[in-house]
Amino acid sequence: MKARVMVFLALTAGLLLISGSVLAHHSNALSDKDRLTTLTGTVTKFAFTNPHVGISFDVKDAQGNVVNWYAFGGSPVALHREGGWTNKTFQVGEQILVRGHVNRDGKPLVLFVRLYHCNGGEMINPGQGKIEGDEYLTRVKLEELPPTRVMAVCSGKEKMPDVLGQLAKDKK
Questions:
Q1: pLDDT band at 133, cuts 50/70/90?
Q2: Is-contact 101 31, C-beta < 8 A?
Q3: d(Cα 101, Cα 128) in Å, to the nearest integer?
Q4: Are 116 and 149 spatial neighbours (Cβ–Cβ below 8 Å)?
Q5: Paired residues of 132 in beta bridges
């Protein structure tokens, strides 16, 4: 009888632990997967912490106003293992180019697909563009920017679509 009670308690505890982690995770449903957006800005904070790596960065809109954006992606463990990331991968004050999916609700949040240092070095989010036969990942892979174009966009010589203006239009 005592053994049955112990087994029951162990199973119950295990189920409770599993259900908590399932409920704690979230989806990326708020991200607009139909639009791959490009933003350039200056890093204000780099958080190499669980559950997702995040980068706060300032972007100037078409009127010259500074908007603080937040880009998030994979876990630190995955980014370190797949891309060699560390807590020093991005520095405050550094210019970056972010390609990703903005939130549908218009908040300045972006799920990054590609991150570039403005000097042309690319950092990749693990798993993006590495799976053959997946239509979405194939499309993202085709959207990669060569280093010369990254530097042209970062320096202002080339303009990418104005996502901030587009978001304002989308809200109306």
A1: very low
A2: yes
A3: 13
A4: no
A5: none
Give CA angle at 67 (64, 72), nearest 5°: 140
What the block records as the tokens of 49 is 């912490």
Query: Residues in the chain, how many?
Result: 172
Q: Quote the pTM value.
A: 0.69
Spatial contact of 39 and 69, defined as CB atoms under 8 Å apart: yes
Give the Cα separation of 82 and 46 in Å (integer): 18
- Domain definitions of the chain by residue range: 37-171
Question: According to the per-residue pLDDT averaged within each range, which of 55-64, 95-104, 116-125 is highest?
Answer: 55-64
> Rounded to whole angstroms, how far apart are CA atoms 45 and 87?
11
How far is it, in rounded angstroms, from Cα 124 to Cα 99? 10
Q: How many CB atoms lie within 10 A of CB 37?
A: 19
What are 135's two structure tokens? 């239509």
CATH number of 37-171: 2.40.50.140
